[in-house]
């Protein structure tokens, strides 16, 4: 057993040198292992008042990505790995109420993926955080771990809320097909043949084929390791020497070559682990998007058959032009339709004449929509949060207009009176009486710029829609 700077590491396989980065509650540590001994362990980044949880690394470009939840520093950061340190740190992604619990990089075409447990979506951008596209929202409840296999163009997501692992295509459409049960998946790791993860509920290391079949598990007695106290498996990564796995208060190593384990206790409060070895990120297969981005003005994706697709950034009001590659603002003559897609949690615009669409906001269960062309604001309801929110056409100025505290239930239809600057909506409530569901629907009005709030009609019958009719008289 080797103790160094509060970390305990047990090695099974003899290796020459192994470098890893480890996220802990107080920062990021760089640990060098050589011939079964720790030769150095240094804290290279400090978290001021939060936690650094998620990590990702591009071993070929020597770039490290991490999420810092510290107040005032909340965001995804990027830094250059030089020797045993990280320099030139910059924030690349920051938006309101973000909580990133997983990071992954496509080291072939230089895309950054992350899971957001607060907003329940997976997003992809370039390494600078630009050209962000919402990749997956459908069926996600509490996404955490994420990993990619760029060689086979596969994305894997661990959902602690839905208790499953999802496999999705990295082709720009991100359809998710294969699903494997997992009670509390934490960090994931994918190779060209397998995907593996730690389950924090069952305290097992699980490994499956790339199709999420032919799985096997190795149980780890974390209670025995932690002096009788129950703790959970967390981070894991494939290294040249086997598998390094962390538990919440320990760092241990598990070898899978003969399905044996070696377990020891320690200290550290560790989360994610990333190896700096380039062998963990193979590049032996080409990708068409590496050829000058195939002319795409923003993001380029390709499927396993090397067919590529260009995508435009969400929250940008840009759409794919007729050439299928350029992202441009629509002209004044371009007609758009607003849509709310409850399954993917998206509020977006789709052109009636151009290809593609753009997302302007995310919400768990969006339902009703109304557009104010004077202020260029979109009003939308959410039946999970029981809110009415508003957002600009370019995704800016997102704010809650009315909430549950304002006696908002499930708003299922809305319309605007542009002359009087008023919003009319159907506000529906449900409750249980003697195991019977009762409901009430109310037609209400709220002023857009005033504190007006008027109840117009209420009934226990269903009201499905509402619309303003303006009568014009002949001059």
From TrEMBL:
InterPro entries for this protein: 6-blade_b-propeller_TolB-like, Cueball_EGF_LRP_Nidogen, LDLR_classB_rpt
LDL-receptor class B repeats mapped onto the chain: 110-152
Extent of the signal sequence: 1-17
Statement: the UniProt record of this protein carries the keyword DNA-binding: no
Any one GO MF annotation of this record: Wnt-protein binding
Keyword set, alphabetical order: Lipoprotein, Receptor, Signal
Gene Ontology cellular component annotations, sorted alphabetically: plasma membrane
Superkingdom of origin organism: Eukaryota
GO biological process: canonical Wnt signaling pathway
UniProt entry tagged with the keyword Cell inner membrane: no
Name this polypeptide is given: Low-density lipoprotein receptor-related protein 1B
Lineage: Eukaryota, Metazoa, Spiralia, Lophotrochozoa, Mollusca
């Amino acid at each position: 057993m080797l103790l160094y700077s509060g970390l305990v590491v047990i090695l099974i396989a003899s290796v020459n040198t192994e470098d890893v980065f480890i996220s802990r509650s107080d920062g990021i540590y760089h640990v060098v292992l050589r011939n079964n001994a720790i030769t150095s362990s240094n804290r290279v980044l400090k978290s001021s008042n939060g936690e650094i949880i998620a990590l990702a690394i591009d071993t070929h470009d020597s770039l490290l990505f991490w999420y810092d939840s510290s107040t005032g520093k909340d965001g995804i950061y990027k830094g250059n790995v030089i020797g045993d340190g990280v320099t030139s740190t910059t924030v690349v992604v920051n938006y309101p109420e973000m909580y990133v619990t997983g990071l992954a990089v496509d080291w072939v075409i230089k895309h950054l993926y992350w899971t957001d447990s607060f907003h329940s979506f997976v997003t992809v951008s370039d390494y600078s955080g630009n050209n962000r596209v919402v990749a997956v929202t459908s069926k996600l409840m509490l996404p955490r771990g994420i990993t990619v296999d760029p060689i086979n163009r596969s994305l894997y997501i661990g959902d602690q809320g839905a208790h499953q692992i999802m496999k999705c295509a990295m082709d720009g459409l991100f359809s998710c097909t294969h699903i494997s049960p997992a009670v509390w998946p934490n960090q994931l790791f994918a190779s060209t043949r397998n995907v593996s993860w730690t389950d924090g509920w069952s305290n097992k290391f699980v490994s499956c084929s790339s199709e999420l079949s032919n799985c096997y598990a190795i149980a780890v007695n974390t209670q025995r390791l932690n002096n009788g106290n129950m703790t959970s498996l967390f981070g894991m990564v494939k290294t040249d020497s086997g598998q390094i796995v962390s538990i919440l208060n320990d760092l241990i190593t598990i070898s899978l070559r003969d399905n044996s384990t070696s377990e020891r206790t320690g200290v550290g409060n560790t989360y994610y682990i990333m190896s700096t070895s380039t062998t963990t990120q193979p590049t032996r297969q080409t990708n068409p998007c590496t050829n000058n981005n195939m002319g795409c003005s923003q993001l380029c994706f390709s499927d396993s058959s090397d067919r590529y697709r260009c995508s435009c950034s969400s929250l940008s009001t840009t759409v794919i032009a007729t050439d299928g590659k350029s992202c441009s603002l629509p002209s004044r003559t371009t007609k758009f339709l607003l849509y709310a897609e409850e399954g993917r949690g998206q509020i977006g615009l789709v052109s009636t004449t151009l290809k593609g669409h753009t997302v302007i906001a995310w919400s768990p269960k969006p339902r009703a929509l109304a557009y104010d062309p004077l202020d260029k604001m979109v009003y939308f309801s959410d039946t999970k949060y029981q809110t009415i929110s508003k957002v600009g056409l370019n995704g800016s100025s997102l704010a809650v207009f009315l909430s549950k505290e304002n006696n908002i239930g499930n708003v299922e239809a809305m319309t605007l009176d542009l002359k009087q600057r008023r919003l009319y909506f159907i506000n529906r409530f449900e409750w249980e009486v003697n195991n019977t569901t009762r409901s009430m629907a109310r037609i209400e009005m709220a002023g857009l710029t005033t504190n007006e709030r008027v109840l117009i009609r209420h009934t226990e019958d269903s009201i499905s829609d509402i619309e303003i009719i303006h009568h014009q008289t002949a001059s």
